[in-house]
Amino acid sequence: MSVAELDIEAELTGKERKLLPSEIISTQTDPRGLITFANGVFTKVTGFSREEVLGRPHNLIRHPDVPRALYYVLWSTIKDGHQFFGVTKNRCKNGDHYWTLGMFQPNFEGDEITGFRSTRKGLKDEGLKAEFDELYRAVRRVELEKPRPRQVEAGYKALKKQLKKHGYADYEAFARRALAN
Fold it and tell me: Which of 16, 123, 143, 147 has the smallest CB count inside 10 Å?
């Protein structure tokens, strides 16, 4: 099944799907980022069935407002064997979106990374959502000014610059504020 067949190019609605406190999203991927497990909350929130997502790239829920550089940092960190904490705005199958704060980490068998997992809950603080939206918009704007092969590099530099401007050493320090949410 192709990405187009999944109808994830549905027009963005601007409507937020808010997660309930009891809704915890859990997914796992293989080392290439292809989904191997998605819990019922994931399918309920995103509108995708398990059959539609299993074996598909996890980025099928990537919202275009979130900079490519953020996913570069996330994937680089977990592929290096470390955990990553972050806030993401994701898209639903119907074009709605949802905000999560989550922990992303590698799965190991001995010293070998056998895949990755994420556990995410809803971000409720509207002020924090606005701050992340502002950060992501600023970085994404820089990315979109560049040809696609140079977007991640330009976005990464812009992300570091924006974080420094706001007094944060790195993205995770900025994102950890959401833990009080």
Answer: 147
